[in-house]
Amino acid sequence: MTSLEDLYEVWSRDSELRETLRKSLEPRGTEWLFELFASLEPRAGDVLVDVGCRDAQHAIRLVREHELRGYAVDPLPLHVEQAKAAAVAAGVDLNVLESRIEALPFDDASVDWIWCRDVLVHTDVPRGLAECARVLRPRGRMLAYVTLATEQLEPRERSLLVAATALVPESLDAASVEAAATAAGLDEIAAHRLDGEWREHMIEDGGWDASESLLTLSRLQRQEDALVAEYGATAVEALRGGQLWGIYQMIGKLCPTVYVWERRG
Hints:
The protein is an alpha/beta fold. Helices cover 48% and strands 21% of the residues. It has a domain at 27-198 and 252-263: 3-Layer(aba) Sandwich (Rossmann fold), CATH 3.40.50. The chain has a seven-stranded mixed sheet, with helices on both faces. Helix 6 links the parallel strand 4 and strand 5 (136-149). The longest helix is centred in the C-terminal third of the chain and has 18 residues, at 233-250.
């Protein structure tokens, strides 16, 4: 344990350490995910499914850049409408379907690629990955971005996030996700643990203001009762969870992770 004397001695001469930490580590941003997909060498005409597509911007880009046959799947009618409109506006031939990852509307061994970003934490991962494995062809691949809890996330913090942002508790655990993939017949090709890297990039390029998130959290806390009375507890908790998400990534309580899995042949 650090003594009081040691603490103030260190603080009196930590300028060099602080200066070191002011230097950028040249963090990769979200573009890296598309670079990673390209490095896997998809071929023109391959079938891609974007599971949990939201507004289908990722599916549209992937289909266009790699000349793929694309499907975009989402369980929310609002997202399906947005995805269809976006595909029409982009002039991209993309089939948009309303469905969940746990029950994909595709034949066995009919898909070459699955793209799955920010989805698994909201799902029954064993069922969802089993479905992905079912529809993938042998040696077909799945690229999944998922934010996982670390040992630093305290139980009450975990419970808050689960309740506020519609998470499935087990789906936050790396061991559970990896075991589910293995059981489904998906072999791990790579696992990239990003920690706070994307958030660093967002701050450095001006895409995200961490101080704004902290201000929002402080203001929410100081007038929580009034906000709940006006907007409802669900809205307040959802906002709190969303603001904490990025902060927790930066301080090591959450770890964004990218898996590349291959369907066992």
